[in-house]
Prior knowledge:
The complex is a heterodimer of chains A (634) and B (340).
Chain A: E1 20-22, E2 25-33, H1 38-52, E3 55-61, E4 76-84, E5 95-100, H2 103-109, E6 113-122, H3 128-133, E7 150-154, H4 156-163, H5 171-175, H6 178-189, H7 195-204, H8 209-228, E8 235-237, E9 246-252, H9 253-268, E10 272-276, H10 283-290, E11 297-301, H11 305-317, E12 321-326, H12 328-344, E13 348-354, H13 371-376, E14 386-388, H14 394-409, E15 412-418, H15 419-423, E16 425-429, E17 477-479, H16 494-509, E18 518-521, E19 526-533, H17 537-549, E20 554-559, E21 561-563, H18 569-573, E22 575-582, H19 587-596, E23 601-604, H20 613-627, H21 630-633
Parallel strand pairs in A: 1-8, 2-5, 5-6, 6-7, 10-11, 10-12, 12-13, 13-15, 14-15, 19-20, 19-22, 22-23
Antiparallel strand pairs in A: 2-4, 3-4, 9-16, 14-21, 18-20
Helix pairs in contact in A: 1-6, 1-7, 4-8, 6-8, 7-8, 9-10, 9-14, 11-12, 17-20
Chain B: H1 31-45, E1 52-56, E2 71-74, H2 80-90, E3 95-101, H3 102-108, H4 110-119, E4 123-129, H5 164-170, E5 175-180, H6 184-196, E6 201-206, H7 218-221, H8 226-229, E7 230-233, E8 240-241, E9 247-252, E10 255-260, H9 279-285, E11 294-301, H10 307-322, H11 327-332, E12 336-339
Parallel strand pairs in B: 1-2, 1-3, 3-4, 4-6, 5-6, 7-11
Antiparallel strand pairs in B: 5-11, 8-9, 9-10
Helix pairs in contact in B: 1-6, 2-10, 3-4
Amino acid sequence: MTTAFESTLNGHPSTTAKPVRRLADVTVRFAGDSGDGMQLAGTQFTDTSALLGNDISTLPDFPAEIRAPAGTLAGVSGYQIHFSSNEIFTPGDEVDALVAMNPAALKVNLGSVKDGGIVIVNSDAFGPNDLKKAGYAVSPLEDDSLSNYRVIKVPISKLNSEATKDFGLTVKEQDRCKNMFALGLVYWLYSRPLDATLDHIQTKFARKPAIAAANAASLKAGYAYGETLELFHEQYQVPKAKLAPGTYRKITGNEALAISIATAGRLASKQVLYASYPITPASDILHQLAGMRNFGVITFQAEDEIAAIGAAIGAAFGGALGITGTSGPGIALKSEAIGLAVMTELPVVIVDVQRGGPSTGLPTKTEQADLMQVLFGRNGECPVPVIAAASPADCFNAAIEAFAVAVRYMTPVVLLSDGYVANSAEPWLIPDVSTLPLIRVEHPAAPADGQPFGPYRRDEHGSRPWAIPGTPGLEHRIGGLEKEDVTGNVSYDPANHERMVQLRAAKVANLKPAGEPYLWTGEQEGDVLLVGWGGTFGAIKAATLELQQQGIRASHCHLRYLNPLPDLKEVFKRFRQVIVPELNLGQLRTLLRDRFLIDAQGINKVRGQPFTVGELVRGVRSRLETVGTADERR
Amino acid sequence: MTLANRNSLNVLKPSDFATDQDVRWCPGCGDYSILAQMKKVMAKLGVDRSRTVFISGIGCSSRFPYYMNTYGFHSIHGRAPTFATGLKLVRPDLDVWIVTGDGDALSIGGNHLMHILRRNVDVKILLFNNRIYGLTKGQYSPTSLAGAKTKSTPLGSVDNPIQPISLALAAEASFVARSIDVDVKHLEYVLERAARHRGSAFVEIYQNCNIFNDGAYEPLTDRATRSDNVVYLEHGKPLIFGKASDKGIRLNGLSPEVVSTAQVQPDDLLIHDERADAALPFALSRMHYPEFPEPLGIFRAVERETYDTAVRQQTETAIARFGEGDLQKLITGNETWTVK
Lengths: 634, 340
């Protein structure tokens, strides 16, 4: 499907009969048991909305347990989609329409629904047992606890079972189609066509025609139910967004990273080795790359996190692009090997898709609390460049940049993503491969003048030569023991050690970023500068625009390079107040205070969830009230 | 051994494999002999120095790469197999050797050893087993005998030692051998066989630490006792030992037993078979002094597809089937929309 199509409702027999109201901006959340197929319903709704030309931003939210006990609060899986006719930056603060497949899903998600919002419940799943598992003494459908919402009770299980009865499926197989019924209903509500999802069903179940037919029937039944149901008085439409011209696709952070890693190999004309040990939320990168063997990518599922980075470093020693991907606990295990890559000055990229910590923490939830770990979590003076992707689409740029920096400066580079960036989706203006800058790599040959080879002789960037095995005359030994300057021989000389520590530090401190060091929104001076990094980009940007609407002179500086930090001293001086929103207890804030001697304040949250725009706006306003705006002070 | 890596033009001497670095092992260390035999084998096989890589972990043995004038990587404790695996995945053209010790390979690096062997990555692994931690000055190791009194076990070790050969066999290593530092002819033979093997070759080398565990293998090296305490494994030949070749090994059910050659028929003796399945080499790996003579030689040598070959073949198949990947197509994906 390469062309935009209007909402012509192809694939459905009848046309709408109810009044249609235009909305600029809607947030929908599908919620159910982790086995209810809510992630699939959510991604399908996202695909369809993207193809319709809406701007989109999504937030999958699922439990760490693959199948927590059915019907319990712990097992609730949700997928939120924000779709709009305007440019948007977040998955939406509050939900306009919630689909709750059972009482637990209702209980967990009701707090996110705005007053007067639509709540569609599967009324078949509200029996005494279901209510008990969710901790309801009385059914919320029977008391007045939902009086603030427009509750639509739909016997989804029964209707689905009726719609799918003629395909020879077991009861269980039939029941698995009910997410499609719910999806069809919501498609009707927001005037979305069914064809993209019908195509998806045909492809996914190509070898199981009965299951494909049942899913399609349930989807269509859900749609038809919307048309006939008395309880819906109207239907909604969200027109196309006015995005920059070009061809778009939907992309998640992990997809973008995988594609970017393959692209980096091409741009450098290098074999790529992606070595990884399965870990949430990074595993999808491994899965995606495993299918890219014909793109010059080898994946290696190592026996543990240490073996994964060891293999990546070994590949780099051999002259390939070595990369490993993990999450916070894996970084802890890789720390010693990162130090070895610093000492041996080999180019390797380490991806940290952050999740809630410490320890095993919240594996499926997002957090930004690994910043200090990747900057300082190693023995000795051990600097590494750190790049943080600001959004799902930015992951594409970030991984290419990480390799460009790694090979130019002969250093390991940490690339930070997080659970939110990894799994959420947004539209991506598809780049033209031919316009991407090549990554230049040079391997030396033996010196013609017969001079001895200096494995640690540095060029103008402070980088040592990337001499690779197979090159006659450059045989040399590297390792984790301190190196003598130039020769690379083992050295315990005190003055040499100090010199080498400083050379390694200077190389990283002075490196030139391979992309934007930071992203800027707003004027160059004002009352408040919001400084962020990583996956909070969208929320902070949206909050900045909201604050500007409210008459506050707010700007936003979003750091992509955390090491080396750009020099922001003069920038900070032009703002009365610097506020650093982070999904941790203030790690970047600590760095900025230390580096720039400013009284930066934090807005901090560690709930495993991204910031909402509203809480940032409120947080900034409350801090400004304490400090006072420029106008009030004058 | 990759044939292309033979250097047929320049004939190298063992001394051509020495670096300009001073060798810093203690005088009298068994490592010197291993280094010397290694250089001899390299020269004999005419290997290309530029296509040979020695990778090590941490410990006395792991200084080895500094003394070989090839490419070398002195990595971190226990992890040499991981670097070697990554290197072979992208550079199957290289000859890669891992040099490790009993602490490095069997304690901190035990996990990686198991996995590199089961994958059959085409690398040669030399495990210098001196049954002690030397570089950290004398703590017991995973191969120290039960009861060993060391700095960290003044009351004697209560750990049951690991059997490296049994471990390698259990991990499905395709080549498993044992030699000893002072038996230079045998060591040279085993190293050469390892070099010629395609796949993971695991060689345990009994090595004397004359500072912290001197005499650990004395019964196997002392002129007076060694022929009674060592049995050489030779493919197709019966296991016979003793000064007068008067003793042999016979299988009693699944268990080996020592018999007098005078009292049994030659056919009753255990005939060594390098290609035998797990049971025979495993039984041999359990034979230890003083109950048995210690077997030296090749326990197992079988052909099995190497990891690097299998990965390369998968890549070739993927390219044959799907063609060289079209990057623009990959980036564009299947579902797009255009904003005008």
